[in-house]
Every structure is written in C-alpha cells, then in structure tokens.
Amino acid sequence: MIHQLNDRHAIESQLKFIDGTTEFRPEQIVSLPEKVADFPIIQIENNFAKAAISLYGGHILSFQPVTESEDLLFLSENTIIQSGKAIRGGIPVCWPWFGPHPEHSDLPSHGFVRNRFWSVLSTATTPKGETQIQLRLTDTPETRKLWPHAWELVLDIIVGDTLTVGLITRNRGNEPFTITQALHTYFQVGSIDGVRILGLDRTEYIDKVDSGAQKFQAGGVEITSEVDRIYTNVPPQLIIDDSTWKRQIQVLSKGSSSAVVWNPWSEKAAKFPDLSDDDYLKFVCVETTNAGPDRIQVFPGSEHRLESKIRN
Ligand code: TA6
Q: Across all residues in the chain, what is the average pLDDT?
C-alpha cells in the first residue's frame, strides 16, 4: 500500500508516505483493522514547516514551522494505535457528532471518523510552495448503521507557515441532516500554568465540569484545574499565550461560532491510559467546533466547511 501511495501521490523532496507499523512508534501499535497491513503516515517537509498526517483517522499528528524549535501540536508518547481507538493528540476529527451521541450512549464519543482509514484524494504544491493534501471519507453500509445518511467528507490541508485545515461535509442524500463537529486540536505548551487563552473575554460558555452551567468569561482563560467548556458566539481569532515557551499560537476559525477549551488536569489525566500522569501540564485543547447550540444543518447537495488556521 505504501508503495502504491508513493507512486501516485509522493512529491519529490516534499511529501512521502511511510509505514507507521515500522516507522511510527511500532511498540505502541496494539492492533489495526484486520484489513490493513500497514499504517500509512504522510511525512511533509517544505520550506515553511514539517508535518505528519495519519491516514488512520485523517489525523494530523504534527506541525512544526521551520521557525519553531517545538512542535505546535501535542502528541502523547503513550498514544495507542488500536482498531477503533482514536490517536491521542494532534488534531482528531470529531464528526458527525461532538461528545457523546445525543440519544445513544453506546455509540462512540466524538463520532466515528477519527478511527477509520481515509483515502488520499490529491496532493499538490501550491504556487507559494506550500504542500496541499486532500483526504476523503464517505458513508458505507457500516456507517449508515451508526448514522443513517449518505455523505462525503473531505479534509483539505495546507502545510505552510500556517497550517490550514478545512473539513468539508457534503450531503449526498435526499434529506437534510444536522451535525455537530470539531477539529479537536491539542496544542503543545511549555507548562499549562503559564498559559492564557485570549479572545474569549466577555463570551458565554457551558461549563461541562459544573453540570453544564451557563457562565460568563471575564478576561483571559487560565487553567488551574480541570477545564471543559463550550464557548458560544466566539470571535474568529483566539490566541494561546504560552509564557513558559514565550510563544503565542493563533487559531483562526471559519464556519464556526463556538469553541471548546479542554484540559483534564491531573486527576482525570491519570484515568487516560494513553496519557502520562504529567501530560496535562504539556497541552491545552482549543478546538474549532460546531458544538453546543452551534449545530449545522446540511441540505441535500450542499456542503459546510469548518476551517481552522493555526500559526505561531
Ligand atoms: O473536547 C473535550 C472533550 O469532549 C472532553 O469532554 C473529553 O472527553 C475530551 O473531549 C477527550 O475525549 P476523547 O473521546 O478523545 O477521550
């Protein structure tokens, strides 16, 4: 599979596919869906940045601009590559529902596309010399059992000095459907106690740590305990201010009016087998979402694009 992918989609000295079962922490690969022999990862390196994307989950694992000594994304050293399980860190794609399924608690949290293999639609170099990758996923008889609709998803990724991630939902059925979704980005930070999220001042949020209470944000968001909040009516640009590493990461969203800020803190982090006990100090999730009341209805033949641009 790796050989065919490189034959069709590699870009000389910019983009290649590697076999994750041998080159991506093989010790952490517990099991893969039986029908695949390897675990393709796209490695990108251009004049602007390095990045890595797993076809499993359509999951961006890494993004490091050439100007940065540290990856902008957090990826757990203990992530478990296991059929049906999502990779911990990077940018999980949560679709067609965010969080637990609204009616059926037995269905997987955050939908079912972050634990499926996506196909490669195209790879290209932009006129600026950035690398563009489009991945695709469509409904199957199996997904229709989970969610009875016909759809196509395209992940439109551009790796440059900015990482642009567009998640395009197309309704290929003959009735409207409603989705909630997230680009559930894990940002790597020097230490969580030196982090402030800027741009959410004077917005309202749903506090999932306090039984979903509706609250009001005053000033920057600081993380001193477990935080799990759905902010509503948020501005397009948020900033992660990391005083430890003396860097700011900008997150520019489109097709979204909500955002999620999450950090499990120590007690909850200890319950995640794919996180080390002190990992909560090293990341904060600032997610570009359609979540909470921000739900999207997609009509037959039409589409919705959720987009997040990330840069330091
Ligand atoms: O986005 C925050 C959240 O919904 C938290 O409630 C927590 O569940 C987190 O996502 C991680 O979820 P996961 O299913 O990836 O373990």
A: 95
